[in-house]
Amino acid sequence: MSRQDADTRDLFSIADLASEFGISTRAIRFYESKGLLAPERVGATRIFRKRDRARLILILRGKRLGFTLRDISDYLSLYDADRSQQVSLLAGKVDERIALLERQRDDLETTISELREIKHLAEERLKKTG
């Protein structure tokens, strides 16, 4: 199913969404168990609406950006609430995530520099003994 086809549909099966987003049905059921998705049920069959699909897009984007399920849940809980509160929460979480990634980048750069120095010293020692 193409994104264009999905944008014009009102109802989706769990298999439709799994296929569209390249995730397992188990992942979708997991997000449902955490309260992030709430499909309707017809017997044992889950019926997802456009709203569920939009929420799944936000969940997957949040996970890709490194947000926790708790962060994503907090954001989604404000989905129908005051937009300014939602935007404020998002801005704060984004700032926290950027700060964490910048600290990790600094740590990586330090580690890489130290490893290069160790390698250089090891190569110098090899030249002297070889």
Folded structure, characterized:
The protein starts with a helix and ends with a helix. Helix 5 (69-77) runs antiparallel to helix 6. It has two domains: 1-66, Multidrug-efflux Transporter Regulator, Chain: A, Domain 2 (Orthogonal Bundle), CATH 1.10.1660; 81-130. It is 72% helix and 8% strand. It has 130 residues and is mainly alpha-helical. The protein has a three-stranded antiparallel beta sheet with strand order 1-3-2. Keywords: Coiled coil, DNA-binding, Transcription, Transcription regulation. Residues 91-125 form a coiled coil. Residues 11-78 form the HTH merR-type domain.
Tally of DSSP helical segments = 6
Distance, first to last CA: 63 Å
Mean pLDDT: 91
The CATH architecture of the largest domain is Orthogonal Bundle
What class do helices, strands and sheet pairing give? mainly alpha
Number of domains: 2
What percentage of amino acids are in beta strands?
Answer: 5-15%
Domain HTH merR-type: 11-78
Organism: Devosia lucknowensis
Keywords: Coiled coil, DNA-binding, Transcription, Transcription regulation
Protein name: Transcriptional regulator, MerR family
